[in-house]
UniProtKB/TrEMBL annotation:
Its main location: secreted. The gene is LOC115732383. This is Peroxidase. The keyword Glycoprotein applies. One of its GO terms (cellular component) is extracellular region. It comes from the Eukaryota.
């Protein structure tokens, strides 16, 4: 009886949800700048290519930037805003150390403002750049949907809701679900670590005094543990010290998943994908079939790029400040 009484109600909710989904989809369009700035993607690609020639960590940082931006307040370039007197911005929040490639976006933006003023949003630049670094490194290409507007709020205290490198699969899934992303997105997007770089602080807890029973995280391979200890001695004077998250870090490939099968995930949250039965089978299939991984990665990047997209708002003139 109760279940029957609930039915019409849940239908209404489903209809509303469907309406919301189709509205937010309608905002974004692969051809959004075709008339207003047809050269936009070419300008962004050239800027990203040039920056990568000067610093091989740029691809990892731009991919991380996109992920971080979309996870906090949706893909609205809130991560790019500078702190102002009275407001500490996201980029100065706790896990800020890995996102230092803002100058690349600034550079692309300056060129875009000359070519087609007040047209291409900072949120779209970040999204296009994230696709470009993947394709440049040998990964898949996909059409980026565009038309995002830039947000006006950036709050350092909100970065606490980013998934931490110590999370287990339950915690990761909860964090993804809050953004409308699922299990497949979690495993596929984690594969972005194929070109990732991490500082010691994100995995050091696995290396020493891990738990009351294990000095080193038992899911971490002995060889890699030793290598990481050498890279991250205690005490450590080098703030930039760290490790690429995959042995073939200049190439976007499925090696990341094979490394997980060998106990060589650098983050606890990487290795957890192989320890947990809910995600292990998918790690296995991505490790076996690179083109499957590429397809799922591209699809998940498109979904991530739709999280919290704003239809109305501004196109910033400089990405570091609201207009
Ligand atoms: C290429 O990148 C370097 C380093 O970021 C920068 O100094 C230079 O101005 C860039 N050149 C062009 C043509 O964008
Ligand atoms: C990280 O944020 C702190 C403030 O929370 C700031 O002092 C520091 O300079 C930031 N680090 C980087 C690399 O931007
Ligand atoms: C930032 O977020 C915190 C926690 O949600 C909130 O208390 C604070 O008022 C926010 N600050 C601004 C400037 O919005
Ligand atoms: C994941 O971590 C949370 C918080 O530490 C813990 O409560 C939970 O039992 C863990 N779940 C799994 C499956 O390990
Ligand atoms: C390891 O952790 C325990 C308990 O937290 C602490 O008492 C001990 O000093 C730590 N040992 C080292 C070498 O850090």
């Amino acid at each position: 009886m109760a279940a029957l009484a609930l039915k019409p109600c849940s239908c209404v909710i489903i209809a509303l949800l469907l309406a919301m989904v189709s509205i937010s989809k309608a905002v974004l369009d692969a051809h959004y700048y075709d008339q207003t700035c047809p050269q936009a993607e070419k300008i962004i690609l050239q800027t990203v290519e040039n920056a990568t020639r000067h610093d091989p960590k740029v691809p990892a940082r731009l991919l991380r930037m996109f992920f971080h931006d979309c996870f906090i307040r949706g893909c609205d370039a809130s991560l790019l805003l500078n702190s102002t007197p009275g407001n500490q911005a996201e980029k100065d929040g706790p896990p800020n150390i890995s996102v230092r490639a803002f100058y690349v976006i600034d550079d692309a933006k300056a060129k875009l403002e000359m070519a087609c003023p007040h047209t291409v949003s900072c949120a779209d630049i970040v999204t296009i750049a994230a696709r470009d670094v993947v394709t440049m490194a040998g990964g898949p290409y996909w059409n980026v949907l565009k038309g995002r507007k830039d947000g006006r709020v950036s709050n350092a205290s909100e970065t606490v809701s980013l998934p931490a490198p110590t999370f287990n699969v339950t915690q990761l899934l909860q964090s993804f679900a809050k953004r409308g992303l699922g299990l497949k997105d979690l495993v596929a997007l984690s594969g972005g670590h194929t070109i990732g770089f991490s500082h010691c602080s994100s995995f050091e807890a696995r290396l020493r005094n891990f738990s009351s029973t294990h000095d080193v995280d038992p899911t971490l391979s002995h060889a890699l543990a030793q290598q990481l200890k050498n890279k991250c001695p205690k005490p450590n004077r080098d703030r930039n010290a760290g490790q690429f998250l995959d042995a073939t870090s200049a190439t976007f490939d499925n090696n990341y998943y094979r490394r997980l099968m060998a106990g060589e995930g650098v983050f606890g949250s990487d290795q957890a994908l192989y320890s947990d039965y809910r995600t292990r089978w998918m790690v296995d299939s991505f490790a076996k079939d690179q083109s499957l991984f590429f397809r799922e990665f591209a699809a998940s990047m498109v979904r991530l790029g739709s999280v919290g997209v704003r239809e109305i708002g501004e196109v910033r003139i400089k990405c570091r400040a609201v207009n």
